[in-house]
Write a sequence for this structure.
């Protein structure tokens, strides 16, 4: 929550800085936003994986193994989706500059 408040404060400060408004293209802003979203997605994916693994600890045998596989798969998918979105934003920015 503290990170979200910090990001919001930085966004507000950037919005009211005249030089930031004039210098940043929409593509650059989109790239920076994608980078921030990627960082938050990585943290959220790690937290989700840890939570899922904690739930897996209550199981035993094959259900526990399957639970861990599912947690790992969900984490990997979230990370791949976040990275793809970020890489696309970077490519779009590079193509416009």
């Amino acid at each position: 929550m503290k990170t979200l408040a910090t990001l919001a404060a930085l966004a507000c400060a950037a919005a009211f800085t005249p030089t930031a408004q004039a210098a940043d293209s929409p593509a650059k802003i989109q790239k920076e936003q994608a980078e921030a979203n990627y960082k938050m997605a990585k943290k959220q994916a790690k937290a989700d994986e840890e939570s899922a693994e904690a739930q897996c600890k209550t199981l035993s045998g094959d259900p526990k193994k399957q639970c861990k596989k599912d947690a790992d798969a969900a984490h990997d998918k979230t990370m791949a989706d976040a990275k793809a979105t970020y890489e696309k934003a970077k490519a779009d920015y590079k193509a416009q500059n």
Summary: Helices lie at 2-15, 18-23, 26-56, 62-96.
